[in-house]
Amino acid sequence: MTSENHIDLPPLLSARGTIKLPGSKSISNRVLLLAALAQGTTEVRDVLLSDDTERMLDALRILGVGLESLGNNAYRVQGCGGNFPNKNAKLFLGNAGTAFRPLTAALAMSGGNYELSGVARMHERPIGDLVDALRQLGADIRYLGNEGFPPLRISPAKLAGDTVKVRGDVSSQFLTGLLMALPLLNRTVKIEVVGELISKPYIEITLAMMAKYGVVVEREGWHSFILRAGSRYASPGEIYVEGDASSASYFLAAGAIGGGPVRVEGVGLNSVQGDVRFAHELKKMGAEIEWGDNQIVASAPANGKLKAIDLDCNHIPDAAMTLAVVALFAEGTTTLRNIASWRVKETDRIAAMATELRKVGATVEEGADYICITPPVSRSAIRYPRSGIDTYDDHRMAMCFSLAAFGGAGMRINDPGCVAKTFPDYFAAFAGVTQAVPVIAIDGPSASGKGTVAQRVAAKLGYHFLDSGAMYRLLGLAALRRGLALDAETQLAELAGTIDIRFEGTDIWLDGERVGDELRTEQSGAAASKVAALPKVRAALLDKQRAFRRAPGLVADGRDMASVVFSDAVVKIFLTASASARAERRYKQLMEKGINANIAALLLDIRARDERDTQRSAAPLQQAPGASLLDTTALSIEQAVQEVLARYPLK
After folding, report:
1. What is the DSSP string of 220-234?
2. Which fold has domain 439-646?
3. Does domain 6-21+246-435 bear CATH number 3.65.10.10?
4. Which residues are catalytic?
């Protein structure tokens, strides 16, 4: 269920299925820029359509590069050999590091006047090491804000020199930018890497993509790289973008946590992306992994138990974030090391990950370049934070924490739209391979018998039971005990958020006290109908109702279970009966309990309540889309139960 600022993921039971990955962001932006820097026309296919690639495409258009959309995520790029037609331009590159860093290097060598800027977070991400390296070659680059950070102004300059040094321990994108741009100089240049090079797999991607455009880089380990004079990019004619290996990690992890098998298509044994090695690390945690040329399949360990690992993550810098959430489901303390680059990504990912993992119940230790995660005592102890998981405008935070929904409580993800950076359809794709705790939602008017039917269906299936009407009666009862008016919406909403409600079999508890027949009186029912009409009250009780959704399943009855509370219910029933039949049933119930009643008065009350419930502004009583109508006027309780079970496809 989504709103403008969050998505509520239901508690998940299992994962299985097949997912075809979107194209790699890293490869997409590399091959698009290389196509522009090359001689000739290139057709680039399977491009990832996302915020980051849109920033690159927009920039190339502004620079005068010929671009034609061919449909089906393909583009025809008319290369300009590094001589961009537009020599004066302002480029806004959002938070796309894979566009900002390489374009900075390429434009510094193209002889034009350019300004490069991005969102506020991009202006906090360091670029000084790349600028320093380019200045060694004579580039004219000035900072328009803080020293060492975007935005930048690039001016024409006379370039010289045959050796350049660049730090390798902050971001591999600095070296990537240099490597991709240096063939534009048409002379032999040596790059010397200062310090340990992090994120080496991304340099492997850069070298592999450059080779596809005809430029082979000589190297001495990871310490120096040489580009020879005469190196020129030439179009390969047609090039395909691999599926995104970083995105594969979420689905492989889902298979390992949720049983599987989950088959991921688009990466495999032949992938050039280092993040495919995530599957090897998942196997070390106990997952079962199968490899193919263009696919990876993940399943849970044979014993169902994942185990903690202690890992140097330099080879999988982005996918390692997924391991941090997988650690919630592993036995022992997981330690992820050599992840200093997390600090300078879309957000400070070490700090963000530590903060959000603590919200769900993990014990976390963080350092400059490591994080240690000790999970809660059990999977079911993973907490659902009512405030939601904050994502810091970071797509990977949102996607990683979707996996926490396997804890049994579901998960709320704030600002889910941030996944548009790399995987706009992520949550739909994730839902396609995961199976939520099933819900049978039974709605209907007062005295239709839905509560009795729902309770018996739950008993037959061994599922949990939610009597939502009782929750409103309990709130009405609590309000009457405290002397609150039944139209005091704000105070009632505050009360709804604080009262303790429990169902144990046929017993109902309010604030530690078992409540009996007083909940079934007409006064209690009328109070429930009044407080249920208040939007703030309904919102306050929503989380309490959804918390009843636990494995192996839930049967919920009420007025809006299928339309609002559990709109993804696997079975939706609108159970009703004629007003006279309902009045007779209520009369018999009351008389059996020794409560005097008048059937004519009961009939009037039921009709009045129907009118009130169907006309209220907050979740009016109605048959939800997709719900089947079950008229029980002529049915016994047992016959109605069998009718509901007959509609359940997963029994």
Report:
1. ETTTEEEE-TT---B
2. Rossmann fold (3.40.50)
3. yes
4. 318
